[in-house]
Amino acid sequence: MDVKPSFAAQTYAQARTAAAPKPSEDGGISFGKLAGNFAETLVRHEQTARAAMTGGADPHALVEALASSQLAVETVATVRDRVVEAYQEILRMPI
Question: Which is nearest to 68 in space by CA: 89, 95, 41, 36?
């Protein structure tokens, strides 16, 4: 099979632009929005837990809320750890 370099380069360029993330109007999701979403998620799950304790929600909803909040906290902790690692790598760079 004979593949021309220009065809390969053109196909690669098309695939790269198709797979590239689309920036939003404000240039991407800001850290503040992510933190707000995290806080809203925890508040919503806390309300579900309170409702389950008073008999206002079923146990299945409580288990879902607990699992979802655990996943959210683990995700935030992982992102925090990665940011700290990146900062430490920057500090180790020679000037």
Answer: 41
Higher pLDDT, 70 or 32: 70
Q: Which among 64, 77, 82 has a CA at the least distance from the CA of 38?
A: 77
The amino acid at residue 18 is A
Amino acid at 30: S
HSE-CB at 51 with a 13 A cutoff on CA atoms is 16
pTM of the model: 0.59
Domain residue extents for the chain: 24-92
Taking CB atoms within 8 Å and a gap of at least 24, the contacts of 60-69 are 68/41, 69/41, 69/42, 69/45
DSSP label of 56: S
Q: How many residues does the chain have?
A: 95
